[in-house]
Amino acid sequence: MAPGDIVDIGSEIASVWSNQLSDLPNSVGASTDAYSCCMMQGRRRQNLTGAQMASVMAAGLSLFLVSGCIPESKIGFDSPTPSKRLDAIVDASRLEDDESLLKLVEKLRSQVPTERMFAIRALEKRTGETFGYDHAGQDWQRLEAYGRWLEHLEEQGIETDSIVASEDVAEDIVNDESEPIED
Length: 183
Fold this sequence. Notes:
mainly alpha; 0% strand
């Protein structure tokens, strides 16, 4: 069967379909001329060289194979996928445990504004407090509010040693007052 045969069969189907539709009330029907025009457009696209067809098929095959090989990342605060990290933050807004509360406070130091925004909204939902934290505020304002959150957690009896250690490292980087290296 040649490609032209498929177009001829399609034209016959369109003709039969048009005749059947025209018998129905409020029906427009399908024009065989319109169908032929569309099929000619398709026929023009079918004139690919062997190399072009091979490259199109190779690209399609590689996409098909790769799509099954990419591991799906899991929801988590440390997921490599940004949307999964946001899902973890939203899920933590519904929890009652100290660990997720600690992770939410830790996300207030994120470099990603969206994560900070989701984290403060989740904390506000859980505790009813923001302690003046603004996800889009200046670095020093966010750092002060973060400190207030750490104090709040400590008052609640929640150990903050794990995030305080990372905070000390971050402050050392920010407060590095060493002399610039000159050439």
